[in-house]
Amino acid sequence: MSESGAVTQAVWTNWSGKLRAPDGATIHHVRSEADAAALAAATGAAGRRLRVAGAGHSHMPLVPTDGVIADLSGLSGVISTDAATGRAWVWAGTPIHALGRPLHEAGLALANQGDIDRQAIGGATATGTHGTGRTLRNLSSAVVGARLALASGELVDVSATERPELFPAVRLHLGAVGIVTRLELQLRPAFRLREQGFVAPLAEVIDRFDELATANRHAELFWYPTRDRAVVKVIDETDDEPEYPLGPEGRRCAWSYEVLPSHRDWRHSEIEYSVPAEAGPVCFAAIRELLARDFPTMGWPVEYRTLAADDVWLSTAYERPTVTISLHLPAADDDGPLFRAAEAVFRDHDGRPHWAKVHHLDGRSLAAIHPAWDQWWAVRDSMDPAGTFLNDHLQAVRP
Ligand SMILES: Cc1cc2nc3c(=O)[nH]c(=O)nc-3n(C[C@H](O)[C@H](O)[C@H](O)COP(=O)(O)OP(=O)(O)OC[C@H]3O[C@@H](n4cnc5c(N)ncnc54)[C@H](O)[C@@H]3O)c2cc1C
C-alpha cells in the first residue's frame, strides 16, 4: 500500500478472464474528482501510463497497462436529474443496473440498454455499447455532457456548448482522453415494456426479421447453428401494469430498466461487427455459409440486432443505419480460427468492429472504415499530448 492508501498491486483481469494487467501495474481506487485530477497529473508527470477501468467487460485490451489503472467504482450514483430537459448527471463509475431505480424515481429512463446491465456507464459509453432497435441509438449517443480529468490535472466540462471542440471526441473515447468522472445523459420519460420471445427454425424467421424489426421497438435474434433454431425476442412499449415477480427472459412486462437487461453468465469471448443495415441479411447468410462449411460443430449463438444511425465520431453506426452480428465462444477456447474467418466475412460487407469485442484490425484498416478517425485522434492528442492515456493496444493503432 502506498502513502495515500489508495494504491494496491494490480490483480486486474477482465470479465472473461482472458485479459490481465501485466506485472508492475498498480490499481488506484479513485475516491473523488480531486483525487482523479491529482492522479492524472501525478501519473503524467511521472511518465507512466494511466488507464481507467469500468466493470472490465471489454474483450479487447483497452484497460491493461503496466502503469496505473484507475478504478472508478467509488464514483457511483445519480448526481442530479432535470425532468424539464429529461437529462441527468451521473457518476461515471455507476453500474448501469444502479441507474434504473433512481432515474425511475425521477420519472426518467435510458432510451435503450444492452443485453446486460453490469457495465459501468462510463465504460459502456466509452465503447459505443448498444442494445437493439431500428430507431434507437447506442449509449454514447445519449452523452450530452461530461466532466473529465486531463493528464494536465485540469478538470474540464465538455458539451455542445462548453469546450465544444472537445465534445465529439469525448462521447465515445475508448478511455483515451482522460478520467471521465461524471456524465450528463439525455434520457426519456420512464416507460413500460412487454417482451415476447419465441423459438423457431431459422429459415422461418430470418426472412421475417426485417418485418419484426420494423413492427417492434426492439427485435433481436439469437441463432444456435448446430440446432438451426433461432430464439427471437421482440419488445414493445405498453400501458399494462408491471407483472411481478418478473418472468424469465422473453416473458417480462415491467419498467424498461427491469425488462431490457438479461443475464449472460456463461464466460465467453465475442466478436461483433456492425454492417450497413441493407447488408445485414446477406452478411448473415455469408456467416451461415462459413459456419456450415468450416465450423459445423460451432453451437454457440450468433446474435443479430439493429441500431439507428448516429453522429458520434467513432460510433460503429456513425452516419449509417446498422445491423450488428456477433459470434460467441467459450472463454477457454482459442477464438482465433473462427473469429478471424468471421472477420473476413464482416470486412467483405463493409463492417466496423465493436470497440470492446475481439477484432484484429490495424490502424490503417480502422482509419479506412471510420470517417472521423483522424479528427478523433487530433482532438485526443490535443487533450493528452504526451499519450498518458494510451496503452500498447491504442498506441499500436495510432495514426
Ligand atoms: C456479458 C457481456 C455482455 C455484453 N453485452 C453488450 C451489449 O449488449 N451491447 C454492447 O454493445 N456491448 C456489450 N458488451 C460489451 C460491453 O458493453 C463493453 O465492453 C463495455 O465497454 C463494458 O463496460 P465496462 O464498464 O465493463 O468497461 P471496461 O471494459 O472496464 O472499459 C471499457 C473502456 O472504457 C474506459 N473507461 C471506463 N470507464 C471510464 C471512465 N470513467 N473514464 C475514462 N475511461 C473509462 C476504459 O479505459 C476502456 O477503454 C457486453 C460484454 C459482456 C462481457
What is this entry, summarized?
With 399 residues, the chain is an alpha+beta fold.
Description of the structure:
By secondary structure, the protein is α+β, with helices and mostly antiparallel strands. It has a domain at 192-360: FAD-linked oxidases, C-terminal domain (Vanillyl-alcohol Oxidase, Chain A, domain 3, 3-Layer(aba) Sandwich). Helices cover 25% and strands 26% of the residues. The protein has twelve helices and 19 strands. The longest helix is centred in the last third of the chain and has 15 residues, at 280-294. The two termini are 38 Å apart. Residues 15, 51-58, 62-63, 72, 92, 114-116, 119-120, 122-124, 126-127, 129-130, 174-175, 179-180, 264, 354, 356 line the site of flavin-adenine dinucleotide. Flavin-adenine dinucleotide binds next to strand 3, helix 3 and strand 10.
